[in-house]
TrEMBL record:
GO terms for biological process: nuclear-transcribed mRNA catabolic process; ribosomal large subunit biogenesis; rRNA processing. GO terms for molecular function: RNA binding. This is Uncharacterized protein. Gene3D superfamilies: 3.30.70.1730, 3.90.105.20. It comes from Nematocida parisii (strain ERTm3) (Nematode killer fungus). Belongs to the universal ribosomal protein uL10 family. One of its GO terms (cellular component) is preribosome, large subunit precursor. It comes from the Eukaryota. The lineage of its organism: Eukaryota, Fungi, Fungi incertae sedis, Microsporidia, Nematocida.
């Protein structure tokens, strides 16, 4: 939540965990750290009476150690280590089985622009003809000067139609290559979003009932 203090976050997590007995399972997810994607996950899980939240494992372990035994805590911790800031661990309290949780995660789609340095997930090719965006709408000719600055050849303004046109097929990049600054800027001009955000289950524990 935007603007939420660390104290408020801790209190919210404490409140969730104090009610842990109301759920059958707790899951640990490794998730792309993209706010819009995480908000989608939270909404979808809340609609099936499940709660997704951030929390540091040590704090969660301390609270759950009163409820879970050592084996269960180890199962929840999982074996996945991560160091990159583009990933984050989330926890999910739910009555749903693991297959159902993963199916919800898999169906939530959030596409974003690939950034400079990302590995291209597909070829970037501009076909001959009017320059169209990903929704098959003509790219405004007001963007032509921006394209010129990128130094991309074989793109002109058609004097008859006043539209931006590609005179020869242009291969901007190939799958597996690292995205350059020029490719990133051109991708935004044509609205090309190839980066798919996702999450996966990396730990799980059954919550014992008294």
């Amino acid at each position: 939540m935007a603007g939420e203090s660390q104290k408020a976050k801790k209190e919210r997590v404490d409140n969730l965990l104090s009610n842990v007995g109301a759920y059958q399972k707790i899951y640990k997810l490794l998730c792309d750290n993209k706010t819009a994607f995480i908000q989608k996950l939270k909404r979808d899980f809340r609609s099936v009476k499940s709660e997704l939240f951030f929390g540091k494992y040590k704090m969660i372990e301390k609270v759950l150690s009163r409820t879970l035994d050592t084996e269960q805590l180890t199962s929840l911790r999982g074996t996945v280590e991560y160091k990159k800031s583009d990933r984050v661990f989330l926890y999910l309290l739910s009555d749903l089985p693991q297959e159902k949780v993963q199916s919800i995660v898999d169906r939530i789609s959030h596409l974003d622009y690939e950034k400079v340095g990302d590995t291209l997930s597909s070829d970037i090719v501009l076909p001959v003809g009017e320059l169209l965006n990903e929704e098959s709408v003509k790219v405004s000719n007001t963007l032509f000067k921006e394209i010129e600055k990128l130094g991309i050849q074989n793109i002109i303004i058609n004097p008859k139609t006043n539209s931006i046109e590609v005179t020869e097929q242009i291969v901007l990049g190939r799958k597996g290559e690292q995205m350059t600054e020029e490719q990133a800027k051109m991708s935004k001009i044509i609205g090309l979003k190839n980066k798919k955000h996702g999450a996966r289950i990396v730990g799980c524990a059954d919550i014992p009932k008294e």
